[in-house]
């Protein structure tokens, strides 16, 4: 652990964060409306058809991000890709105002294309703004993660309220306007020349290995949540039904969101002034997660009021775990990959997470009646990865010492 000196965040951090937050308000607000809009009075789709379209919509975004990243890295530049993607996404949102099937498909298609250009390229340029001050990468991406979460929650809360008051057309129009507004702060950011960046001094084999380890670790982290969340949600439901506690299911979710925010703010401040390597942070995150799962195993099948504090402690530990893992993957990619292809690496980082989530999700039905088993498996995976990372760090430090 080393003190950070002569490095600080700049105005570009604010501009990128503001842009991303407004885009997330737009996207998540729109996403909250899609299925309701398709099954509502205008289009009158059945639930199976609407769910299928929604699934294709979400799945297509992952593919479009890879294409958009390649275009940004190799052809049009990352900053132009952000502008073009934002405009296309805004046109897509406005197309949804057309009350027809054509408007629906056109709007969803344009949102997928625009989001594919916008997302990996803004993350890439945000990372590049820190390449000459790499010790602040963790703090910077944690701030970025925080504004993404805040924008998502704001979109889910705000846009449906607007629709309830003024209808779907106004709601979709608002998401399009917010998307256009998200491009204004990008005007004040720089266009980056990769020749100006400090390169990592680590051997290329070590850099590739660090990236692969981080991708697999983060993917497994979210994968374990797929099977462990069943038990977590069951406990939450039981506790919300205890009248003497007077804590609803919504309140538990709010507490979880608030704890993520608090730990993110603490991490941002701490990691702005004190540096430790990213893989060590990942190891700490997995160890905290395994402790949280172990605590959850202390709660019986049907929890009582006395178990609420145990559940709360586990939520706090899981939030701390999330902050040590989720933002760090982009920090690692930015530090160890070639800046010229950073958006492409970032777009590919979404794939292991999605694949592990799908893979673990395939077994969810087996853990509905055996939810504690899912929790145990999740704890085992967390412990294995956490201590595996520590062993790898010890090994690499010995190698570095022998080379010196």
UniProtKB/TrEMBL annotation:
Signal peptide: none annotated. The lineage of its organism: Bacteria, Pseudomonadati, Bacteroidota, Bacteroidia, Marinilabiliales. This is MFS transporter. PANTHER family: OLIGOPEPTIDE TRANSPORTER-RELATED. The chain crosses the membrane at residues 21-40, 52-75, 82-102, 108-127, 139-162, 168-188, 208-230, 250-275, 282-302, 308-329, 341-363, 375-395. It comes from Carboxylicivirga linearis. It holds the Pfam family MFS_1. InterPro entries: MFS, MFS_trans_sf, PTR2_symporter_CS. Keywords: Membrane, Transmembrane, Transmembrane helix.
């Amino acid at each position: 652990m080393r003190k950070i000196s002569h490095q600080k965040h700049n105005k570009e951090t604010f501009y990128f964060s503001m842009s991303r937050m407004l885009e997330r308000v737009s996207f998540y607000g729109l996403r909250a409306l899609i299925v309701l809009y398709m099954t509502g009075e205008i289009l009158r789709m059945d639930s199976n058809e609407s769910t299928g379209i929604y699934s294709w919509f979400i799945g297509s975004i992952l593919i479009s991000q890879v294409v958009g990243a390649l275009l940004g890295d190799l052809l049009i530049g990352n900053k132009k890709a952000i502008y073009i993607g934002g405009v296309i996404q805004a046109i897509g949102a406005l197309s949804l105002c057309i009350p027809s099937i054509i408007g629906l498909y056109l709007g969803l298609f344009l949102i997928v294309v625009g989001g594919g250009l916008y997302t990996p390229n803004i993350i890439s340029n945000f990372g590049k703004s820190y390449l000459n001050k790499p010790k602040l990468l963790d703090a910077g991406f944690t701030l970025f993660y925080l504004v993404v979460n805040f924008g998502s929650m704001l979109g889910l809360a705000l846009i449906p309220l607007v629709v309830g008051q003024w209808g779907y057309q106004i709601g979709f129009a608002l998401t399009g306007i917010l998307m256009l507004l998200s491009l204004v702060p990008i005007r004040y950011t720089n266009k980056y020349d990769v020749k100006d960046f400090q390169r990592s001094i680590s051997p290329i084999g070590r850099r590739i290995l660090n990236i692969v380890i981080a991708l697999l670790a983060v993917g497994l982290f979210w994968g374990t949540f797929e099977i462990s969340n069943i038990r977590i949600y069951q406990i939450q439901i039981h506790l919300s039904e205890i009248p003497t506690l007077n804590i609803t299911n919504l309140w538990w979710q709010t507490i979880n969101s608030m704890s993520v925010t608090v730990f993110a703010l603490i991490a941002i401040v701490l990691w702005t002034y004190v540096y430790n390597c990213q893989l060590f942070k990942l190891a700490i995150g997995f160890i905290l997660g395994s402790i949280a799962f172990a605590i959850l195993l202390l709660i019986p099948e049907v929890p009582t009021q006395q178990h609420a504090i145990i559940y709360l402690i586990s939520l706090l530990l899981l939030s701390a775990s999330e902050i040590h893992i989720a933002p760090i993957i982009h920090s690692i990619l930015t530090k160890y990959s070639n800046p010229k292809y950073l958006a492409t690496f970032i777009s590919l980082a979404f794939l292991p997470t999605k694949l592990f989530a799908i893979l673990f999700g395939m077994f969810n039905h087996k853990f509905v009646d055996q939810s504690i088993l899912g929790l145990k498996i999740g704890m085992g995976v967390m412990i294995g990865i956490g201590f595996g990372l520590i062993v790898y760090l010890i090994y690499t430090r010995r190698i570095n010492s022998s080379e010196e």
